[in-house]
């Protein structure tokens, strides 16, 4: 129930006017390769270097190692009020299914605090990496809820996209691709993904992540792409920390941000989310798993300062990604699951502006997080 003067149960918590919000939703995080900074010496900070360093480190992954690091990272997310997670997980001949075997047990082990879904994808190529296709199929047979792609690492980008859609249809799963990750608007694949989404009737079940190339488009061109995405039912995820860290390395001044202003796509009807992506690895040597931090960082980068724009940033870590994952019973409303956070702020807009900590979290009505509010000791 929600309302004034309700009869208390066994316990009452006085929040002193603080805001109660739904749990945060993380649609794009790599639990399998989080926390490997001590194994990788990054000198250039480029995407190519990060892929190479991660590929080398991946060869030494064990199931136990992945499980330990992924669990620690998942607990960071939980501590910041995240209650739904789609993790992107790599399979290829170098790592086999070891990462999958390390992450999958977490689905049940952490069900008390978070709903975890696995999206399997080929980071190092699919058509040009023999053996990867069979491993992706094996992972889907083991219960992965989505299939992903990274066409820019493949010898035939559209061929990889076609194959991924075929897998999605065969296993009736959603599609979530890394797409159009680059520092210029040339050779966009997003229109082809929209075509394939419409062709196969997969509208509402396809998401594309990064899309940094769109940040280099003129406003009219970006608006046209937004209408195309909305019409085909393709959602977008921007990864502010990673995109900001990796983009523009070749510039010595006037460095471009490389973060697409997706809040401008919301009025067109595009589903939009913000996510952490990588945490403490060569792709992003930072991160604490806070979705509110991603909303604040994005608002700074994309100069989204009006109350309406800040509210949109909050929606892109809550209701928007919830719709993207097709969650049922999400939100603070009678009859929905009691997945709730208490933020140390009066409003959700204030929470984004001030990076308000999560003081309490409840998953399905059970308390999962407690964080003491700060106290100042005046003389």
Structure commentary:
This protein has 379 residues and is of the alpha/beta class. 34% of the residues lie in helices and 17% in strands. The protein has 13 helices and 12 strands. Strands 2-3-4-5-6-7-8-9 form an 8-stranded parallel β-sheet. Strand 6, helix 7 and strand 7 (206-210) form a beta-alpha-beta unit. Helix 6 (157-171) runs parallel beside helix 7 (190-199), helix 7 (190-199) packs parallel to helix 8 (219-232) and helix 11 crosses helix 13. It is globular and about 65 Å long.
What is the strand and helix layout of this fold?
Elements: E1 19-22, E2 24-29, H1 47-58, H2 63-79, E3 82-90, H3 98-103, H4 105-109, E4 115-121, H5 132-141, E5 146-149, H6 157-171, E6 174-179, H7 190-199, E7 206-210, H8 219-232, E8 234-238, H9 240-246, E9 272-274, H10 291-301, H11 307-315, H12 319-324, E10 340-343, H13 348-354, E11 358-363, E12 366-370
Helix pairs in contact: 6-7, 7-8, 10-11, 10-13, 11-13
Task: Name the features.
13 helices, globular, four-stranded antiparallel sheet, alpha/beta, 379 residues
The Cα radius of gyration reads 20 Å
Chain-averaged pLDDT: 96
Class from secondary-structure proportions: alpha/beta
Mind describing the biggest β-sheet? 8 strands, parallel
Oligomer: single chain
Spatial arrangement of strands, main beta sheet = 2-3-4-5-6-7-8-9
End-to-end Cα distance: 43 Å
The low-pLDDT segments are none
The 3D shape can be described as globular
Report strand %: 15-25%
What helical percentage do the residues reach? 25-40%
Strand segment count: 12
- H and E string: EEHHEHHEHEHEHEHEHEHHHEHEE
**How many helical elements?**
13
């Amino acid at each position: 129930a929600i309302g004034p003067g309700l009869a208390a149960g066994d316990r009452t918590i006085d929040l002193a006017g603080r805001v109660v919000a739904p749990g945060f939703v993380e649609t794009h995080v790599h639990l399998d390769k989080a926390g490997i900074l001590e194994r990788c010496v990054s000198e250039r900070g480029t995407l190519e270097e990060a892929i190479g360093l991660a590929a080398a480190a991946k060869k030494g992954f064990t199931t136990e190692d992945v499980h330990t690091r992924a669990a620690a990272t998942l607990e960071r997310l939980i501590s910041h009020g995240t209650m739904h997670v789609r993790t992107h997980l790599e399979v290829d001949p170098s790592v086999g299914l070891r990462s999958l075997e390390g992450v999958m047990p977490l689905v049940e082990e952490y069900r008390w605090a978070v709903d975890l879904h696995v999206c399997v994808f080929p980071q190092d190529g699919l058509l040009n990496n023999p053996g990867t296709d069979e491993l992706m199929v094996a992972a889907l047979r083991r219960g992965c809820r989505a299939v992903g792609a990274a066409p820019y690492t493949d010898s035939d980008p559209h061929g990889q996209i076609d194959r991924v859609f075929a897998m999605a249809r065969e296993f009736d799963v959603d599609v979530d691709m890394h797409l159009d990750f680059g520092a210029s608007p040339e050779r966009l694949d997003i229109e082809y993904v929209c075509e394939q989404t419409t062709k196969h009737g997969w509208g509402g079940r396809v998401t594309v992540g990064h899309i940094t190339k769109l940040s280099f488009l003129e406003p009219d061109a970006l608006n046209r792409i937004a209408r195309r995405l909305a019409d085909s039912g393709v959602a977008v995820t921007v990864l502010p920390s990673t995109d900001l860290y990796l983009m523009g390395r070749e510039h010595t001044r006037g460095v471009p941000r490389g973060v697409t202003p997706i809040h401008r796509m919301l009025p067109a009807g595009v589903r939009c989310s913000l996510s952490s992506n990588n945490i403490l690895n060569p792709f992003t040597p930072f991160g604490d798993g806070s979705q509110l931090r991603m909303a604040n960082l994005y608002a700074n980068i994309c100069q989204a300062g009006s109350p309406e724009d800040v509210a949109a940033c909050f929606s892109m870590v809550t209701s928007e990604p919830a719709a993207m994952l097709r969650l049922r019973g999400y939100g603070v409303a009678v009859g929905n699951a009691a997945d709730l956070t208490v933020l140390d702020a009066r409003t959700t807009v204030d929470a984004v502006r001030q990076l308000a900590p999560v003081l309490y979290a409840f998953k399905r009505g059970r308390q999962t997080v407690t964080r003491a509010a700060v106290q100042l000791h005046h003389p």
